[in-house]
C-alpha cells in the first residue's frame, strides 16, 4: 500500500529541498572564491553544505552548474521587465529600462563576487558567453512580441544585441569600480550610444 503524503508534508519537503539547494549554492560560491574554481572540489562543497556528494549531485551535476544556477533566473527576469515596458516606447528605451530594473535588483556583494569569479576563470567564460547568447535571443523575441513584429525583426535583434553588449560592459566596469553599481554604468553606456547616434535621451 502506497504511503499517503499530506499537503503539509509535501510543503515541508519542498522547503527542505529549497533550503538545501540554496545552501549548496552559497557554500559553493564561498569555496570557489576562497580556493579558486579549480581549487575547490565537489566533495568539499558537499561537506561544507552538510550533505553527501550523492545528494549534491541530485541538485547539481557539476561545479559549473552551481555557478550558473546563481544567474539562472536573470534571462527571464529581463524578459519580464522588458515586457512590462509601455509598448509605444522606442526599442532602446525598452531595453535600457528593463536592464536597469534587473541590474538594480542584482546589485549585491554576492553577485559582484560571482561576476569576478567568472571573469577570472577561463573554464567558466565559455558557459557565460553561451548564457549571454541566450539572453540576447530571449530579449529579441520579447521585443518583437511586445511590438507585434516578426520574430526575426532586424531592429529587435539589433536592440537586443546592443543591450547584451552593454550588460557585459557594465559588468566589467562594476569589477573595476565595485563601489558603483552596474545600473549606473549601463545608463552611462546607453547615454553614450545616444550621443553617438545623435539621439536625445528619453524624458
From TrEMBL:
Superkingdom of origin: Bacteria
HTH tetR-type domain sequence ranges: 18-78
Classification via SUPFAM superfamilies: Homeodomain-like
Record keywords: DNA-binding, Transcription, Transcription regulation
InterPro entries xrefs: Homeodomain-like_sf, HTH-type_TetR-like_transc_reg, HTH_TetR, MftR_C
Protein name according to UniProt: AcrR family transcriptional regulator
GO terms, molecular function: DNA-binding transcription factor activity; transcription cis-regulatory region binding
UniProt DNA-binding region: 41-60
Listed Pfam families: TetR_C_14, TetR_N
Amino acid at each position: 500500500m502506497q504511503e499517503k503524503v499530506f499537503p503539509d508534508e509535501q510543503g515541508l519537503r519542498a522547503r527542505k529541498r529549497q533550503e538545501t539547494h540554496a545552501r549548496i549554492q552559497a557554500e559553493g560560491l564561498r569555496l570557489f572564491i576562497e580556493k579558486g574554481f579549480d581549487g575547490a572540489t565537489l566533495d568539499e562543497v558537499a561537506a561544507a553544505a552538510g550533505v553527501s556528494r550523492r545528494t549534491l549531485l541530485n541538485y547539481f551535476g557539476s561545479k559549473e552548474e552551481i555557478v550558473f544556477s546563481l544567474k539562472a533566473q536573470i534571462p527571464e527576469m529581463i524578459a519580464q521587465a522588458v515586457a512590462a515596458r509601455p509598448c509605444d516606447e522606442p526599442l532602446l528605451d525598452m531595453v535600457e529600462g528593463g536592464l536597469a530594473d534587473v541590474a538594480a535588483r542584482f546589485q549585491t556583494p554576492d553577485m559582484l563576487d560571482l561576476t569576478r569569479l567568472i571573469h577570472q576563470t577561463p573554464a567558466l567564460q565559455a558557459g557565460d558567453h553561451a548564457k549571454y547568447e541566450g539572453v540576447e535571443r530571449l530579449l529579441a523575441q520579447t521585443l518583437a512580441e511586445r511590438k507585434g513584429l516578426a520574430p526575426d525583426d532586424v531592429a529587435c535583434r539589433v536592440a537586443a544585441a546592443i543591450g547584451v553588449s552593454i550588460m557585459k560592459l557594465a559588468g566589467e566596469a562594476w569589477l573595476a569600480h565595485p563601489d558603483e553599481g552596474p545600473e549606473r554604468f549601463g545608463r552611462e553606456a546607453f547615454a553614450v550610444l545616444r550621443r553617438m547616434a545623435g539621439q536625445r535621451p528619453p524624458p
